[in-house]
Specification:
With 258 residues, this protein is α/β, with parallel strands linked by helices. The chain has eleven helices and ten strands. The strands form two sheets. The chain has a six-stranded mixed beta sheet with strand order 1-2-3-5-7-10, sandwiched between helices. The structure holds octanoyl-coenzyme A. Octanoyl-coenzyme A (CO8) binds next to helix 2, helix 3 and strand 6.
Length: 258
């Protein structure tokens, strides 16, 4: 079904692998369409609880497809920008967690794709950067907004204005990724985190994602009030009863994972 992705579901985890290694997994319009379809499937499939997004070969994703962008008119470029933003926004806002397993180059639109994930685990071979200013443009798939929110305004400006490429350890140091692991352990490490999250009450995980995403731009008191209202549904759930009972009975909780 997909020309540029591998999409597999196993034991509740959807594995989405960008598979266009000859072009460093660059995001053409077709790749963007397929990513949109894949994450819509992640959202709609009741068998899927969480997704792991990675890339095949040397790159996670080396950006938007420059050979495709070079000939676009301004309006066509705008359409591609909207398409890319829709993909990133979809990944960020679907109910289910998405873990970025960053295997190699995550540049431009690739760094933006990584930042749209709920969290990032990097191979020690991964490299990050926003090289758009080298091409006479600025990030257009959310980078000017998501990067400063993750690493701070000064570091965000530094990376976007210098186009400097940083390695995984530096990305970890500045808070762009949450873990760095040896290359051969990358998918196993992502699966371990996925399984930990899957062992929790799904209603609590959904509420946490929603509140963190939507609360971060609010003033503190409005954000805290929003958190309180979002707690009401988990607090009324069977999973709350089970989680608290299990704690008191000194046994692992068995949540309703569907
Ligand atoms: N687009 C198209 N093709 C690419 C891209 C890309 N982003 N990146 C690599 N490729 C291709 C190369 O052209 C090359 O093709 P070929 O074999 O046909 O010559 C092949 O992939 C292998 O690449 P290299 O030979 O360059 O491999 P290296 O190992 O020497 O270097 C790098 C790897 C460092 C990843 C290098 O390829 C590179 O710098 N790539 C470009 C990175 C970049 O500038 N990315 C940002 C793109 S702009 C962007 O993402 C903006 C998003 C918002 C746009 C919104 C408006 C539409």
């Amino acid at each position: 079904m997909y020309q540029n992705l591998i999409y597999e579901v196993k034991d509740g985890i959807a594995y989405v692998t960008v598979n266009r290694p000859k072009a460093m997994n660059a995001l053409s319009n077709e790749v963007l369409d397929e990513l949109y379809a894949a994450f819509t499937a992640v959202n709609n499939d009741p068998e899927v609880q969480i997704a792991i997004l990675t890339g095949e070969g040397k790159a996670f994703v080396a950006g938007a497809d420059i050979s495709e962008m070079v000939n676009l008119t301004t309006l066509e470029g705008r359409a591609m920008m909207i398409k890319g933003q829709n993909v990133m926004n979809l990944i960020e806002t679907i109910d289910k967690p998405v873990i970025g397993a960053i295997n190699g180059f995550a540049l431009g639109g690739g760094c933006e794709l990584a930042m749209a994930c709920d969290m990032r685990i990097a191979s020690e071979k991964a490299k990050f950067g926003q090289p758009e200013v080298n091409l006479g443009i600025i990030p257009g798939f959310g980078g000017t907004q998501r990067l400063p929110r993750l690493v701070g305004k000064g570091m965000g400006k530094y990376l976007i204005m210098t186009a400097e490429m940083i390695d995984a350890q530096e990305a970890y140091r500045i808070g762009l990724v949450e873990k760095v692991v040896p290359a051969e352990e990358l998918i196993g490490a992502a699966e371990k985190v996925a399984k930990t999250i899957m062992s929790k009450a799904p209603i609590a995980i959904q509420a946490a994602k929603l509140v963190i995403n939507n609360g971060i731009g609010l003033d503190i008191l409005t954000g805290v009030a929003f958190e309180g209202e979002a707690l009401v549904a988990p607090f009324s759930s069977e999973d709350r009863a089970e989680g608290m009972k299990a704690f008191l009975e000194k046994r692992p909780a068995k949540f309703n994972n569907k």
